[in-house]
Design a protein that fits this description.
By secondary structure, this protein is an alpha+beta fold. The chain has one domain: Aminopeptidase (3-Layer(aba) Sandwich), CATH 3.40.630.30. Helices cover 34% and strands 31% of the residues. It is built from 5 helices and 7 strands. Strands 1-2-3-4-5-7-6 form a 7-stranded mixed β-sheet, sandwiched between helices. Helix 1 crosses helix 3. The longest helix is centred in the first third of the chain and has 16 residues. It is globular. It starts with a strand and ends with a strand. The relative contact order is 0.17. The structure holds coenzyme A (COA). Coenzyme A binds next to helix 1, strand 4 and helix 5.
Length: 172
């Protein structure tokens, strides 16, 4: 059985390192190294991760391997990207990040984290949003399996580079 645990502030450094490694592994070749470095420096600094874990409005959950290493994490919180007027509501939360180690893909780690995230969202809102890179077909297929659907475009900045993202919605 896959155990999902709530992150503690002491996990912030490890989550930050895992997040940056995972982002680089997934998307690193797309960007100019300078843009990537600028983005990573501001994306999940340990102090922000720690503050989010300690806060009332964000939560991070983890799955670990046998040696205690992180196999994946999910970060949930308030919506923090610009929704178009027809989607704007106070009754929504956002799945901010879901990253799973290469060796743990296809093993159920992402499923366990997603089920935890959807339950988290259901306790707080009736809509769950996320943004996903247009070319990230694996993630999009994974999200659609839960009933997420594409509702529009969103821009995602990596240094000076602007990516075309989609934003997805799940009615809870
Ligand atoms: C996105 C992620 C969490 C999904 O977890 P996972 O364990 O890989 O999920 P699955 O193995 O079930 O794959 C999801 C779907 O993509 C398909 N898939 C597998 N490899 C693929 C590939 N290279 N290209 C496109 N689709 C692919 C799977 O067959 C599955 O499709 P199905 O639902 O029709 O069966 C995980 O791949 C991940 O951490 N990716 C890197 C980080 C990332 O992109 N995070 C999301 C940012 S928005």
């Amino acid at each position: 059985m896959t155990i999902v645990e709530l992150a503690k502030t002491g996990d912030a450094e490890a989550i930050a390192a895992f997040a940056n490694g995972s982002f680089t592994h997934t998307f690193g070749t797309i960007y100019d190294p300078e843009d990537l470095a600028t983005f990573l420096a501001g994306w999940n600094p340990p102090e922000r991760v720690s503050a989010q874990i300690a806060s009332d409005d964000h939560d991070i959950a983890l799955v670990r391997g046998g040696a205690g290493e992180i196999l994946g994490y999910i970060k949930m919180g308030p919506v923090d990207f610009d929704l178009p007027d027809d989607q704007r509501t106070d009754d929504a939360v956002e799945l901010h990040q879901l990253y799973v180690a290469e060796a743990a893909k296809g093993t159920g780690v992402a499923v366990a984290l997603m089920e935890w995230g959807i339950a988290w969202a259901r306790e707080r809102a009736s809509i769950l949003y996320l943004t996903v890179f247009t070319e990230n077909h694996r993630a999009q297929a994974f999200y659609r399996r839960y009933g997420f659907y594409d509702v529009g475009r969103n821009q995602f900045r990596v240094g000076n580079h602007i990516d075309e993202d989609r934003f997805f919605r799940l009615d809870l």
